[in-house]
Structures are given as structure tokens and as C-alpha cells.
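Quick one, T. Sequence first:
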Amino acid sequence: MKNIAVIGAGTMGNGIAHTFAQNGFKVCLIDINEKSLEKGIMTIATNLDRMIAKGSITEADKKATIENIITYTDIKDGVVNADLVVEAATENVELKLNIFRQLSEICDENIILATNTSSISITQIASVVNNPSRVIGMHFMNPVPIMKLVEIIRGYNTTDQVTETIMELSKKLGKVPVEVNDYPGFVANRILMLMINESIETLYNGVAGVQEIDTVMKLGMAHPMGPLQLADFIGLDVCLSILNVMYDGFKNPKYAPCPLLVNMVMAGKLGVKSGEGFYDYSESKKAEKVAKMFEK
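C-alpha cells:
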């Protein structure tokens, strides 16, 4: 595989494009919004500058990485030469199904189609594709250029060959792939979101404040980031979406989102992306928090 198409220029999409491009792959970064593409490329450049300042890459590495990325607003143009397509659009079932319907029509039936979904069924996504055996989950962690884990999720029809190909590809990116099966939330979010939701319930019930809850988990459980701060970083809307997927999938009340989380999302308090969540984020603080992630 040499040519990678990444659909979606948001936080995960530009991070995935960055990672492939930095490792020598030719990347087509696709988004229907030109401004999102411009912002995505700026984010990649900024994060590369942080790596230069840290001494982990050179100016030449940055130049080569940026030159490996071409942007497109038309999905058909962007995937025409792709050996692999990685969808990283918003965590919305209908949106993803529509994208994969298009890919099924555009791409050769042997092209592997991966999704970066953090909770939605791979089998459901594959059901709209003419060759569902080539659909697989490739769940990167945020920030993608830094985090080592990639959850590799097999759908019901995903072949061994496709799975092995994506496992090996992930290793070439310097990642540690872990194969899991297709159940709501997979492994990472099935466990993580319960912890985050319970942390929000703890706050909602008045047991302790935001900083107190996060401090207990950081100092007592050796977590690098408290669960409420992590929820802000992920996006409270994303957390809510994942919990709803698991609640619908398992029909178990333990996955029901806390009312406080629901209200915060409805009020537009989504965390870092909106400037306010469990913590208040000015633009300078937001940049500082992202910078610290790249310093680790």
C-alpha cells in the first residue's frame, strides 16, 4: 500500500493523515468543507513544528510530510488511486453509512475500506458495501501522531487476509495494533466510557467536585489525565454519542448517559472544542493543553 485516502479533516482525520504522511505514504485528505481542509493542514503543520522543537523530527521531515498530503473536496477524485480508504468523519451512523455507500460505488471491490469509528458496528457499516469482507475498523487514539494503540475491529464478514494486512500496516506506522471483535464500544470505549459516565454521575450526585474527582483518579489510580478532563478532550458530544450507541446495542441501563452529560451537550458545552466543558478553556489554554500532549 502506498496511496491512502482519509475522509474527514477534523481532529482524527488530520491526525491520521499526518501519521501516514510522516511515514512516507501518499495521502489524499478529503473533506467537503474547504475551510476544514485548510484548518486540518494548519493543525498538521503546527503539530510538526512542535515535534521539531522537541527534536524528534527535522525541518526536512516536516517538508516531506506536508508534501505527501493532497487535499480534495470531492470524494470521487480523492479516492480514485487509493490502495486503502480510512473514513474518519463525525461519529454519526447515517453519515458513515452514506459515505460507505458512495465508496462501494466508486472504489474497486478489492480496495480495503476502514473506518475510524469509536463505537459503531463494523458489520452494520459493511452491510451497505458490495464486498463487506474488505471492511474493517481501524480505531486510532487521539492525538493520533502520539498515541500508540490502534484497535483493529473485525466485522462479521471481515476476512483474515484483510485483518492481517491492516495489522501489519499499523505496525509500519509505529503503532501497536490490537485485534478485537465487533461489539458496541469495542474494548477501549466500552470500558472508558463507563468510567467517564460514572465520574460524571459522581459529580452530578455531589460526591466531589471536578478537580477533586480528577485528582483522585490521577494520583490514586495513576491515570495521566482525570476522566472529566479526558471527557473534555474527547468532546462531550462524542462521549454522549458513544454511550447512546452502547445503550442501544446492549439495552443495559448501566450504559445510560448521565443527565448532566446530556444537559451539557444540549447547552453546547462540549469541552475543549467549544471552549467550555467541565473546565473553562481560553484559546491560550487550549493550545497549551494540546502542546503538552505532544511533549510526552
